[in-house]
């Protein structure tokens, strides 16, 4: 009985070693097998997707660099036009402005060349007078531009009782077209 057991055990060991060799050969064949066409197609699609993503990432990085440089350029231009250290705070309209700023604002924001001509001639229209806030002993300074234009007499558009809450009627078109001269 012991000899039969030993023989059976040796036969089983031989079968195990034979199966082990067969398994190793099969694993080697599996590792060195030819690729299937479906696998090759999936690999090609994945490579294309990776290439597209890399191109998109490269484009986004280039755009980011461009916009960063553009931001620096615009900030530089903005600082040249305005000021590099802005005065941050609340604007109080009741504070009196300096004379230099009033003169610059008056010449910069006048409504028509005719008003400028009147101001230069010293016959300004509007608010200069005893109640205007200017002291009488001040040296002659060109008068400030009027706060509001004087209405044209007998004009329906400049009627003093015109309701500012109600919109005006649209203007009527001219009968003949305007001719522009160069």
From TrEMBL:
Protein name: Protein FAM184A
Lineage: Eukaryota, Metazoa, Chordata, Craniata, Vertebrata
Keyword Coiled coil: yes
Annotated region described as Disordered, given as residue ranges: 120-182
Domain of life: Eukaryota
PANTHER family: PROTEIN FAM184A, PROTEIN TAG-278-RELATED
Organism of this sequence: Austrofundulus limnaeus
Keyword terms of this UniProt record: Coiled coil
Bias (Pro residues): 136-148
Biased composition (Gly residues): 123-132
